[in-house]
Amino acid sequence: MERIEHRACFAGWQDVYRHESKTLGCTMRFAVFLPPRAQGKKLPVLYWLSGLTSTEQNFINKAGAQRYAAQHGVIVVAPDTSPRGDDVTDDPGYDLGKGAGFYVNATQQPWAAHYQMYDYIVSELPALIEANFPASGARSISGHSMGGHGALVVALRNPDRYRSVSAFSPIVAPSLVPWGEKVFGAYLGPDRETWQQYDATALVRSTTEKLPLLIEQGEADEFLETQLRPHLLRDACEAAGHPLTLNLRPGYDHSYYFIASFIGGHLAFHAAALNS
Amino acid sequence: MERIEHRACFAGWQDVYRHESKTLGCTMRFAVFLPPRAQGKKLPVLYWLSGLTSTEQNFINKAGAQRYAAQHGVIVVAPDTSPRGDDVTDDPGYDLGKGAGFYVNATQQPWAAHYQMYDYIVSELPALIEANFPASGARSISGHSMGGHGALVVALRNPDRYRSVSAFSPIVAPSLVPWGEKVFGAYLGPDRETWQQYDATALVRSTTEKLPLLIEQGEADEFLETQLRPHLLRDACEAAGHPLTLNLRPGYDHSYYFIASFIGGHLAFHAAALNS
């Protein structure tokens, strides 16, 4: 593991690391914000999963989360969105291959060789963080769009490993929308039954432990009706008796201006769960 | 004038416009943040001048200023850093030509045809803003690096037009450092006397009106000793009896992580002057 960026930020440090991932079989980068309180004290960690075409840079450059993470004493870890490198399979589309790992374990070739993002996020990355940083072991998870889908799936399948989950503009039912149908078909094959383990709306029906769940959605989001469809998750949560706070925000779109406007509330939400 | 971006942000709007600049003889873009209070009320304006290689996008994407501008009820205008377009002279270096207008009126060819950024910032842009937005006419100005230099020069030469001036990591004495010597030689010619009108350290010695002046400087800034040299302005302010608050911040570098960490204090500083 090698530190490749180290920048003072809100009295803490915004760092970026490079490491060899065994799960993914390639060199990966992740960003870590260490709040000022990290000196000498173990702190909870919020994982942030980014959306299509992103790297570890987008969130740390644009969301303005460091201010709130410093205030609440939360470490924030932002991984990349897919395996990387010259020997990793890619696709010309922005919504498949590099930058579009979709946080699943691919079972189909040529993808299965490297595209194991689910295991990377659930197991390898937290183990690495907790071995090398002042992390207490308390975890929460959030993300945007494809990363909102990832956060929901990871938390709903592992409620014992996370204290809370939130998402901005998530793809809540990937099995039913074009982005998900394309990538699940490629990564998981044509059997739609296998897709359900990565579909938050399907998962919420069967989960027994019920984590605090917060969703932020802009009503002027250009992908709202075609790809995101938050009402499908709302209906499933109501049917399953799963708690959900769904904030619909008039006028806001799919961009980081939306995330920046409400990330403070999400940090407060996670800090309350992490520090309880 | 045409609006080309319009995004909800902190209950206001982060917009980008395109217009034909008579001063620069080309199509220019600028960003405008309109805080929520802008509806039906005239508000003061903070102008932000960006640094080398930037466009109107960098500050609005990375600084997180919208939160504070919304809170204080200040419109924030961020122009581009040079004339643009295929018929505008450029240079292969990142520190001359496009993205490096240095906020001067060039007198030397081939630059003089378009590189009139000083007049654009002082006259054309404020007139455009005050004719088309709910701007009260009260102005302040700030900027980063090359834009910090620009803010200081524009305010020191026009103290009647601005209420306050601040800068992050400014080039305070361009006549004496490599960046300034290169571009002033190109834009203004070899007579160093003509450079003094664009050198904040020279200007502060002769200004009579004394604006509130705040400078933020990271002590781990990679350009601190070679290009920025804030002690030259501090010494000139002391000799001239000009007020100056110079905040030296240990550990911080030249990046937007530094700006984001302290932009809230600068918005508060300008809001106090603008609303007094």
UniProtKB/TrEMBL annotation, chains A, B:
Protein name, as recorded: S-formylglutathione hydrolase
Signal peptide: none
Keywords, comma-separated and alphabetical: Hydrolase, Serine esterase
Family designation: Belongs to the esterase D family.
NCBIfam families: fghA_ester_D
Top EC class of this enzyme: hydrolase
Catalyzed reactions per annotation: S-formylglutathione + H2O = formate + glutathione + H(+)
UniProt function note: Serine hydrolase involved in the detoxification of formaldehyde.
GO molecular function, one term: S-formylglutathione hydrolase activity
EC id: 3.1.2.12
